[in-house]
Amino acid sequence: MAAMLRYLTIPVTPFAQNCSLLWCEATRQAAVIDPGGDIDTVLAESDRLGLALGQIWLTHAHIDHAGGAGELAERLGLPIVGPHPGDQFWIDALPQQSQMFGFPPARAFTPTRWLYDGDTVSVGECTLQVRHCPGHTPGHVVFHSAQAKRAFVGDVLFAGSIGRTDFPGGDHDQLIASITQRLWPMGDDTVFIPGHGPESTFGRERRSNPFVGGT
C-alpha cells in the first residue's frame, strides 16, 4: 500500500502565514514548510504529533515564510531545502526584512540544497514534485503530491486571489504563466495549501478566481 502523506497547517507570525508540518504516516518522518516564525509553537505541534522533524522546505524567502528557518536549522541541525536560487537576494536581505516589518531578528543562510523545476523532495516514504513558479518572487517553488492530490503553493495562488507582484523581482505576467502552465495541469481536484488563508482547489479557482478564472 502506498505511504500516506499527512499535514497540519499552523498560522505563524503577525501575517498569519500558513506554515505546514508534513509527514509520512508510515515512518513519522516530517518536514516543515515555510517556518516564518513562532518556532516554539511549530515544535510543540511536532512533539504533540510524535514526529521526527528532519527537514525545512521553503517555497520562497519572504520574511513571513523564511524568517525562522535559520534559527530552526541551527537549533535542530536541520537542512534547509529550497527555494530556487532566484531568491538568494531575498535570503540575503532577511535581517533587513525583519527590521522593516517588525519581526524578530532573522538571520540569512545558505540553503543546504537549492531546488529546480522537476526536482523531487521526499519525507519518509512520500515523494513530492518540485515546480519552479516565479512571479511573486523569482525563486518561488511549489511542492506537489500527485498521490495525495495536494499542492503547497506558498504565495503563488490564494482562494480568490493571487500573489502580489509589486515587490522587487515580482512579475505579473510570469505569475499568471506559473499558475496556468504549472499549477492547472496538476488537476482540478487537487487541493492547494496557500501561504495565507483557506485551502481551495485548482478547479474552483480556475472557474471563479477573478484574477485567473477562465484561464
UniProtKB/TrEMBL annotation:
Enzyme class label: hydrolase
GO MF term list: hydroxyacylglutathione hydrolase activity; metal ion binding
Region (Disordered): 195-215
Cofactor: Zn(2+)
The enzyme's E.C. designation: 3.1.2.6
Pfam families, per database record: Lactamase_B (PF00753)
Alphabetically ordered keywords of this record: Hydrolase, Metal-binding, Zinc
Domain Metallo-beta-lactamase residues, every copy: 16-196
Superkingdom of the organism of origin: Bacteria
Protein name per Swiss-Prot or TrEMBL: Hydroxyacylglutathione hydrolase GloC
Gene: gloC_2
